[in-house]
Amino acid sequence: MPTSSPRTSSRQKLLDAAADLITRHSVQELTLEGVALLAGVTKGGLIYHFKTKDELLGAVVERMLDQLDERYRAKAARRGNTTDALLLALVDDCFDMPESERRLLANLLAAASNYPHLLAPVQGLYGRLYGQFADAGKNAGLALVLAASLDGIVLLELMNLHQFLPEQHEAMRQALQELAKNLA
User: Fold this and answer.
1) Distance, first Cα to last Cα, the chain
2) CB-based contact 96:166 (threshold 8 Å)
């Protein structure tokens, strides 16, 4: 197993600490001092990697998006890397997302109005995903509707506008899986 350099290790510890603090509290309560303390790094060590809170937040968002993208693309690859495979992976992510990840996403979403630069990488990910679904040939419309439905479910719950019951989750999951499988 390759070892990472001390700088990479410190950077990852800082990103882990920042994500942990955002998950448990909020972006507004995030401080460079708090992140450094939790990561066991000096404030100078933190500033070596991230000059500002904005830069740190941007890196947290980028890493989170990379991890999400990597996770559902790996799931899709195991199913054959087709449009329906990618949609099925997104269905899994929608309904199986760990609670800590939901809290992190909800807190970052809440911070977006104060930190609009956080939206650009998210928009890029959505642009790539929806672009791929738009290229799905005769099934492009259905693929786009299914992807937008999944995002709607997640956003409704993240924004605490509605919390679906477990049996509602299961009914939606089954319906979305069936529709996605019919894209093949």
Assistant:
1) 38
2) no
Task: Determine if the pTM surpasses 0.90.
Answer: no
Count of domains for the chain:
1
Q: Residues 10, 28: contact at Cβ < 8 Å?
A: no
CA 165 to chain centre: 22
Rounded mean pLDDT, 37-57: 93
Expressed as residue numbers, the domain containing 74 is: 6-181
pLDDT digits (tens, 9 = 90+) for 67-109: 999 999 999 999 998 999 999 999 999 999 999 999 999 998 8
In-domain check, residue 1: no
Instruction: Report the CATH number at residue 63.
Output: 1.10.357.10
